[in-house]
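Record now logged for everyone:
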Amino acid sequence: MEDRILMLDGSNYLEWEKIMSAYLRSKGLWQITSGGDVRPTPLDPTADPKPSAANIAECNKEIADWDKENDKALGLIQMKCTINLSTYDESTSCSTWNGLKKAFATPTATAVFNNFQKLLAIKVLGNKHPGSEMDEMWTLMERLKANQVDLPKFLRAFLLLHALPSSLGAVVTVQLQTVAATDLDFQSIRSVVQLESERKTPSLAHRLSAVKHKGPADPSFQQQKKHNRSSAPAPEAPSGSSDYKGKGKGKTRRAFRGGKKNKQQHFHSHIADAVLIDIPPTIVSQPSHAGPMTTTIASFGKGSISY
């Protein structure tokens, strides 16, 4: 529960007071903080009648226990106040609490207007999840409500729709065309926006697969590629092909030409080395020049064409 407690900065006192008082109650420290449990008065050993030593010892223990609990409450309050509010620190949790209440329980018009300006300035970004911006909007609306400025339900919804980016324009259109103005609800629109945003956001796995590996290439892949190179048969050069004609001593050149660029492309490719594929003859028909209604059958082979 401690994580839910806001840091008191003065402008959010009414919100802070509700959560902080509940937290102190859960720790059994509210009676000391609210003044319901006051510090015991030490016994005067010279009083008449003179208190016994046992009574004095018991009273001193009660005082020590009270001081210990007071320190706990005071420490929790100080932990949840910004450093500029340290001037309100007193020796007891009760006096510190009352000082903060007196200073900030009645908000000024300036503080309320500042919160309203912050609310109007929030825009939901289209390049990230809108959850944080919508959370901030709701917090400011609740802060205004705590300061006696409670925005109507439909106005809260309008402010959220106004803050949405153009990429979520479909949400605005559907809400305005299918829901009556008086029925528009901030939380309902918020759920729709979250679902639509998650639908448009690529999955984590897809984004990770698009990240280029910066380290050395996978050694197992390199070994497999080297093995494929050594075991694959050399491509057979077709007769009459200029790309495979040799120079000098009749050596044949590789079909893949190019310098460094082609080597880089081949390094990043996962495609096996090219080999010639024996394509079976294909039979097609085409119109004959002898007459419009007759056809000639041609057979395409590797080396020639026969009719």
